[in-house]
């Protein structure tokens, strides 16, 4: 009796030993036309094994690539697609360059920097004041995640820099919410959400 552990390693185990045996048989067929017919039959069987993947783009192309891999790229037929090359299959992928946005204050994030610049262009005075207060409050929330000790004046100075020195509230009477108040407000909102969920149940 032969055990699987004694047989050659499967190139693509998901197709099983029987499909590998069919591929190996295709390699032994001397007539080129018969060999191609055999390959087509194997492809159809492989496709029937994964019917839920039929809607995947290039599904057939993937099957022919897999056939070539299982044949160790030795199956001499006219492939209907340009199959993957053996050297590409085992080569290391290229290095991916990650974007590193240029930010003056990383703890605020890119979005808050954009919002600070947007505030400059708001024309309506009341709307502008509300938006600036919103940005400054979010800046304070972001800042305490990086450093627990922060006063409003520090936020106003950073906002002045982020806005290209165009929003200056350093000498204003504006007072930002205390972060403990914001935390309590968030907890109340969360508890309210939980109560609503319980009511729905």
Descriptive key words:
201 residues, mainly alpha, 2 domains
Describe the structure.
- The protein has 201 residues and is mainly alpha-helical.
- The protein folds into two domains: 7-89; 109-180, no CATH class.
- Helix content is 57%, strand content 0%.
- The protein is built from eight helices and no strands.
- It has helices at residues 16-28, 32-49, 59-70, 86-89, 109-120, 125-146, 152-162, 179-200.
- The longest helix is centred in the last third of the chain and has 22 residues, at 125-146.
- The protein is rod-shaped, with a radius of gyration of 32 Å.
- The two termini are 60 Å apart.
- The mean pLDDT is 83.
Q: Please outline the major beta sheet.
A: none
* Portion in strands: under 5%
Provide the residue-averaged pLDDT.
83
Please state the CA-atom Rg, rounded to the nearest Å. Answer: 32 Å
Structural class: mainly alpha
Helix content: 55-70%
Judging from the principal axes of the Cα atoms, what is the shape?
A: rod-shaped
Indicate how many domains the architecture comprises.
2
